[in-house]
Amino acid sequence: MELKDIKQVYFLGAGGIGMSALVRYFLKEGKVVAGYDRTPSPLTDKLIQEGAQLHFEENIELIPACCRQPEGTLVIYTPAIPDSHKEWALFRNGEFVVKKRAEVLGIITGDRRGVCAAGTHGKTTTSTMTAHLLHRSHVDCAAFLGGISKNYKSNLVLSDKSDLVVIEADEYDRSFLHLKPYIATITSADPDHLDIYGNKENYLEAFAQFTERIREDGYLILHEGLEVVPRTKKGVTTYIYGRENGDFHARNIRIGGGRIVFDYVSPWQTIEDVELGVPVSINIENGIASMAMAEICGATAEEMKAAMKSFEGADRRFDFHIKQDNLVLLSDYAHHPDEVKACARSLKELYNDKKVTVLFQPHLFSRTKDFYKEFAQSLSLFDEVILVDIYPARELPIKGVTSKLIYDHIADGVKKSMCSRADVTKVVEEKKNEIEVLVSLGAGDIENDIPQMKQILINR
Fold this sequence. Notes:
The protein is α/β, with parallel strands linked by helices. 31% of the residues lie in helices and 25% in strands. The strands form four sheets. Strands 8-7-9-6-10-11-12 form a seven-stranded mixed sheet, sandwiched between helices.
């Protein structure tokens, strides 16, 4: 099926952050868009307002009649949908065109110059920042993002004048191997998704395969020190970037007074006094990678400098909800030990005179089983740790795997406690007067309690 022949698109897992960008894309294309998701959310509410016909009950009768006809219907599914799902079984066993999200994204962007950010962590902020730099420049771009850009209130950015498209290249289920990048940045490659890959070697091999997919006239930008061994085509230019070393790097870094300013150094120029719109230290490296991609695409120094300062970030990526001298509340999507470590170090650097408390909801039983010791080491960098029940997402429980595995390995001297998911706001209420900096951490549903946490702390 050619995309031009599609009349209606049905999504299984419509509320996922990556899927929702495609929902919005096909709505903009004037297609009938419908779908299922397990639970409603603020994002699905917005998709319904924008025209998507969504439901939250596994029920074939709720599928619009036009989407039950194979002719002209494209079905897009997430691997998180179980084989036993009745709607999935209907489409899978019928004569429907059925594709994964990543396959469709690859088709949509295949004839454009893809600017792709991949990595275990950092890819959402880097891709969102790159999209902002390019979209605010004379170059412009479209973008399919893995987070909601706070500048654009969406994970989809469209352009009618540029063939550049910024893409968050997700390694889960080897999705990024459906892309053909013009520019690919790999921010990190710390083993994750071992339920899919099995071991570190297979995980790194997938990133090596990703580098093979870069166009012959393209570019690879690697963070210094990665274990990924590139296998690029002849003609691909490879650069290294880092905080203080590499072809692209920062110098004269100044952190203080709630601001981070640095000089950006590339093979072609130095841009002095670049200020981060979201001033956390990990964004120095994310900013360097983003500016490198934007510079290669033709954005000017003045355009990049202005856009860096105006960048507001992505939802749940160092997302500040309260930012006062004596009280800070933020949320972050960190769900891998290295992300947790980067979050802790950034916050301790930014608030070195304050107590930093983390409320952490582990994501997936399998990830907790594989990395509970590493999670404990990273969490031990905070002053106080409150551990919440594991968010299962697509998984069934694993015997003996609970948050207590992490709890038992947190370093001596770190104040720690555990609470049920239902008691999160109750715990915040009890501790409200001793909180200085509170970060809600994890990729699960703990984010849903942020509005209530905010009210509790503001009214203390």
